[in-house]
Design brief:
The protein is built from 5 helices and 2 strands, in the order H-H-H-E-H-E-H. The protein is α+β, with helices and mostly antiparallel strands. It has one domain. A two-stranded parallel sheet has the order 1-2. The protein is globular, with a radius of gyration of 13 Å.
Amino acid sequence: MIKDYYISDTIKFYSNYVHQRLKFLKKRKFLFNEISFFLSNLVNKSKKLAFFGCGNLLITKKILSDKIYVNEVNDLIFDEFKNQ
């Protein structure tokens, strides 16, 4: 992950509320799958894609690309969804 991408306040916020964010993401997993499907129609087969945010790992699941870079604000969020 590129830690310097995020401002310190963002990192602090998601560190303090990571469990609430995980709960939100799990509850709305269907929505993120739908977003992923929609995006796959726009960017599939791109050589490289980068996603930055808090929960964007879920959005990448249906996208086909040679290389997808995902930078989550918090490692716990990345670890929770990397194998799903």
